Amino acid sequence: MKLQNIIDDVMEKGADYCDIRKERWNRTSLTLKDGDIEKVTSGKEEGAMVRVLYENGWGNIGTSDLDHLKETAQRALDVAKTSNEYKEEETGMAEVKTHEEKLEMGMKDNFLEIPIEEKVSFLKELEKQLDEDFVRSTELRYGDSVVDKEIATSDGTHVEMRIPRIVTYMVVTGKSDTIQRASEAVGGTGGYELTDEAYDKKDVVLERLETLLEADTPPSGKMSLIMDPHLTGVFSHEAFGHAAESDLVSTGNSCLEGKIGDKVASDMVTIKDDPTMEGYGSFPFDDEGTKARNRILVKEGTLNDFILDRENAWKLDMSPNGGARAEDFRVKPLVRMSNTIMEPGDMSFEELVEEVDKGVFAKSSGGGQVNPGEGTFQFNAQEAYLIEDGEILKPLRDVSFNGFTLKTLQNITGITKTMETGIGHCGKGQTAAVTDGGANVLISEVTVGGRE
Hints:
By secondary structure, the chain is α+β, with helices and mostly antiparallel strands. The protein has two domains: 3-213, PmbA/TldD fold (2-Layer Sandwich), CATH 3.30.2290; 221-448, no CATH class. It is built from nine helices and 20 strands. The strands form three sheets. Strands 1, 2, 3, 4, 5, 6 and 7 form a seven-stranded mixed sheet that branches. A five-stranded mixed barrel has the order 8-15-16-18-20. The chain has a two-stranded antiparallel ribbon with strand order 12-13. Strand 19 and strand 20 (431-448) form a beta hairpin. The longest helix has 18 residues, at 196-213.
């Protein structure tokens, strides 16, 4: 039975809204650790998520039984009616333009046609090129996936799309007086041709580890800090981007609540979340069938927009902008980022360094934590360097920095002309493929080495 026929049946029974997202996945995952293949998984699966809104109650049911979607839709309607009995808060779906389209994001080299043995050989060859005296351990992970989606809504949208993604993770570990590790991820939305990037990035990982093994401990206190493009991206995604997700805003769990039109950053700061650009988090339509578009979250220091699905756009009286993403057919969409970028500025890296009397140049993320509601963050850098009197002096290790997100955005006093991006997976109860990036960014004051 066609999806639209199932939706029409539910609507005739009193539903206020219904959508069905049908998916077919083809995935491969490999892990090579110290010469041994620890994981090989490859397979196909398919299923659908049916969502029904009845007055103020939602029914969301995922199923792998595609032969009985009509019965699944009926169960979703029953759940929505039950949920409505206990729901005090009003809800709705903001209007969007409907679409009927079928499109495919292409692959130059189709990884579905590459044998598993060749993918294993790729990891083994990459491991050989990471073999250095100072490397004690290596872990390489490869993953690819293609998802075919069909989304139909009671508004009249019907879209079909194919999205391929591929990623390679490299992790190398060494030991001097302490154990140090360096990592890098490469890939994107595309085909097997993107594995070539791993060979280009292997030297970055090796040089980072070798530097860390000889580095000193960092200073602590309030000082200037330069973030490299990858840390700038992580800061833009984690510290700011999550606070700009409209489900957190509408529930009072964001430091950006009520601040549209307010100055939240330095005039030189523009931050976008753009699923239409080339990146690991790209998609043509979100998982509600809303057409993807570039979202300018901060424009020259002013808060301009949030990342919005249809329900939270309705709650905030704003326009949806394609912000609904689901990990797969088992779960309902959540408000999620895609490709989050702090736009470049007009300075050179040398000019940034010259501005620093005492500070740190921090490179690449080593993890951290954020609190979008309080607007606080703490990040660790994989690699860092001491700066004194406008000169980079020596490498540092175990560098962390923390502060308040909005205060830190206002303390940005320089951004370079050139930028880079990185890829990863964002967790929010569900996993989403994302890109983040930016340029080298100078923060005039931030707390390094622990909160004072």
